[in-house]
Amino acid sequence: MTKSKIHKDEVDWLISVYNTSDDEELKSDSYEKLIENGLDETQIKERFEKLKSEKDDLKAFEKAWKRQAERNELERYTLFEKIKIFLFGPYELFKFFNSGLTELRDFNYKMKFRQRLILLISGTIFWILIIIGAYQYSENKRIQEIDKIDITDWENNRIKYE
């Protein structure tokens, strides 16, 4: 008779069935299969305790993760961070195509998500207005310089066709 290789998860399942089941027939069947796979009573108990502690650790981690997500929900940016996002956020957005909004949404930073979105939009509008204003100012200066030029000599020296 050849032994079929059994998966670790199957052994873990058999151990949990053996230690938690109320059905005596199911309990004895799982015990027999565990014995066939080379485990004795002490190994079964040790493995069950390990599984139990891993489940407790997993539950504790999930609970801590949930608490952190609740804390993240109302976290806000500081004034310095807001100024930095307002001034440099549009540059990063258009250079690297990364707004940082997806990470905030994924980690449940609801308040920071809204703040960043508003700051990016207002910062982009600010920089567009600055660029338009600078262009209008330079254009206005150029027109003023053209108007200041005295062209009377040019008009006097011009050949008159009659």
List the helices and strands and how they pair.
Blueprint: H1 8-20, H2 24-36, H3 41-73, H4 79-96, H5 101-106, H6 110-148, H7 152-157
Helix pairs in contact: 1-2, 1-3, 4-6
Distance between the termini: 123 Å
Task: Let me know the average pLDDT.
Answer: 83
**Rg over CA atoms:** 37 Å
Shape: rod-shaped
- Bin the strand percentage: under 5%
- Count of runs of 4 or more consecutive helical residues: 7
Structural class comes to mainly alpha
Record field, number of beta strands: 0
Q: Tell me about the biggest sheet?
A: none
User: How many structural domains in the coordinates?
Assistant: 2
Order of helices and strands: HHHHHHH
**Unreliable parts:** none
- Bin the helical content: over 70%
Structure characteristics:
mainly alpha, 0% strand, 2 domains, 162 residues
Q: How would you characterize this protein structure?
A:
This protein is mainly α. The chain has two domains: 8-72, no CATH class; 75-150, no CATH class. It contains seven helices and no strands.
Summarize the structure.
The protein is mainly alpha-helical. The protein is built from seven helices and no strands.
